Amino acid sequence: NMDKEPYVISEKIGHVTWLTLNRPKQRNPLSNDMMLFLKESLDNAAENQETRVIVIKANGPVFSAGHSLKEMSAKRDLSENSRQQLIKMILANCSTLMCSIMSNPKPIIASVQGPATAAGCQLVSACDLAIATNESSFCTPGVNIGVFCTTPLVGIARNIHRKHAMEMALTGDAITAQKAERYGLINEVVNSEDLESATTALAKKIASRSAQTIAAGKAMFYKQIEVPIADAFALANETMLNNIMSKAGDADEGIGAFLEKRTPNWKGL
């Protein structure tokens, strides 16, 4: 029985934790349960000292079809107030999940094997990096059913240009992986059979770097990108100064290794 299956399968291989969305028959919707289990899995991987990179992937032909419309509308028999509370909760859990991906100290890669729709597309936009196959497509189709994809656009429009974001939202049309790469929503398109090896290679490369440097750098990246440029420089300068001066940090080792032409020996590896 599929209901007994875990919503998210977590598997650690070396320094990489692979999280697999595991409701293939329902097209991996971001139901309340799926979002809560995914967030829990992400939090566990964040706390795991051995994990240096996290990958989010999915089982079945679809990466994620987004929010469960069933869940949002099956409750039509609820009172107006109860239904409002339900939808409010789903949206709040979704925002919390997306923000937790960006605040997670580990780099997170979306490994996309099929269509990513609405909140599923938002999930891809929230990840630090994304690799997709020719079988993938990306869309914000809310406009087709009278629900503008307002919340998915928050993340998507922080990845791509406004005109491209509005084109996706106003037409509701799916864009190909090639177009998504050109727009900047994803980093790379590969053949289906190469997705796992390409994701593994990227994850391993990042896992070989200094984890503490990456954690501080990732946190600052998302902080500075949201503020005016003078403030961004002030924030970034402070982080960089701490990075270079910290005796507990890896910069001395990294710079020393570079000058001495040897492989750095990062702390905590």
Please write the string of helix (H) and strand (E) elements: EEHEHHEEHEEHHEHEHHHH
CA gyration radius, whole angstroms: 20 Å
Count of DSSP H/I helices = 11
Strand order of the largest sheet: 1-2-3-4-6-9
Walk me through this protein's architecture.
- Helix 1 links the parallel strand 2 (16-21) and strand 3 (53-58).
- With 269 residues, the protein is an alpha/beta fold.
- Helix 9 (211-224) runs antiparallel to helix 10 (229-245).
- The strands form two sheets. The chain has a six-stranded mixed beta sheet, with helices on both faces.
- The chain contains eleven helices and nine strands.
- The mean pLDDT is 94.
Quickly describe the structure.
By secondary structure, this protein is α/β, with parallel strands linked by helices. Helices cover 48% and strands 14% of the residues.
Give the topology.
Layout (H helix, E strand, L loop, with lengths): L7 E6 L2 E6 L10 H16 L5 E6 L10 H5 L6 H24 L4 E5 L3 E2 L1 H8 L2 E5 L3 E3 L10 H7 L5 H10 L3 E2 H7 L4 E3 L4 H13 L3 H14 L4 H17 L5 H9 L10
Helix pairs in contact: 1-3, 3-4, 4-5, 9-10
